[in-house]
Amino acid sequence: MQSAVDAHGPLRRVLQAGGSYESFDAYMECFVGLLREDCFAGIREGLMALRVGTLDPRDMRVWDGAVALAMSPPNAVGEGTVMEFHVNGNATPPMFGSLLAIAPHDDFGGDTIWATVAGADCKQGGLRLYAELCTDLHADSEASVIATLLKRGGKLTIVESPTFYRAYAPAISVLQHMTSESMPFGEEIVLGRTDGPLLVPCADATIDGSVVFDTNTREVVEGMRLTDFNNALQTFCASKTASSAGVTTCECMIQGQMQTITTRLDSSQCEAIRAAVTRRIAILQGPPGTGKTFVGVRIVRLLVSIAAPAEVADTEPSCDDGPILLLTYKNRALDDFLGECLKI
Predict the structure, then answer these.
(1) Exposed, middle or buried by CB within 10 Å (0-12, 13-18, 19+), for 165?
(2) For the chain, which end, N or C, has fewer CB atoms within 10 Å of the first or last residue's CB respectively?
């Protein structure tokens, strides 16, 4: 087995600042490595401090003198082998799903065993701890791992990672099993392609241009053809006309006729919306207050409004309606975004 302290050294690759990666494997090596480093750095540093006697008990929990009591084999619901341990003293139970490193006499070297917390009960005089073995983190067979645990008897030290392992494990597993053929948006993400053809959902598709444009005759922009909408956005993106009171005016071709339309979006926001509507993948970045949520809500409204004539929608799969999945890093950001959508 790999040493818990030395297994994850410095990353051999760094993130690309732009352009493409050498290959799909180079991209995966970088991002899986970053996730693994983020996941294991805390416990690795804690184990190094424990080894030299400088560990602050507030940084990582340690249980000494653990005894392996029993073993439950894998079951039909997908649980792996679960080991039962007893820890003396009034120990606080670890969090369900936390990563555990188990070793004899706090010697976290080649015999380190990895597991996750499957349950814990406070018993009179101690703690009953149930740990599911992490087969994919061991180089040795599961039988060899179990033999090591039982052989050490009551001379086991268990530590709990300060990083919540279950938050990382699914993503790491998916990336490790992903192939270049199954990776979504591989050409854009790995190869850095930005010159692909513009996407048009289907022939004669329309969009509610009133989400971003205004004109004296509102009906003109409410049912714009998607091609006219994209051309109008491009015109505003390239416009050098100074806005008046936050409103920019341009002459655009709509349904074969020149129309005067206005928008309250600036050129960068128009470019962001055009990218989101016409590209397979688009990234909008900006500091607080630049209108990311404002633009994002309008992108959702536009995507929902795209429609095609019934005779076209029935024959072209690209016109099928699909769900819109919204992910945010924090709950507050999701609440703010949905709150803006409800104001529509």
Answers:
(1) buried
(2) C
DSSP code per residue over 87-131: EESSPPPPPTT-EEEEEETT--STT-EEEEEEEEEEETTEEEEEE
Residue positions counted in the chain? 344
Where is 250: in which H helix or E strand? strand 248-254
Distance CA 273, CA 294 (A): 11
The C-alpha atoms of residue 344 and residue 342 are separated, in whole angstroms, by: 5
| DSSP assignment string, 161-178 | -SS-GGGTHHHHHHHHH-
pTM of the model as a whole = 0.67
Q: How many Cβ atoms are within 10 Å of 246's Cβ, its own excluded?
A: 9
> Is residue 84 within a helix (H) or strand (E), and if so which, with residue range?
strand 82-88
Report CA 310 to chain centroid distance, whole Å: 37
Give per-residue pLDDT as tens, 224-259. Answer: 888 888 888 888 888 766 566 778 888 888 888 888
CA angle 113, 167, 93 (to 5 degrees): 60
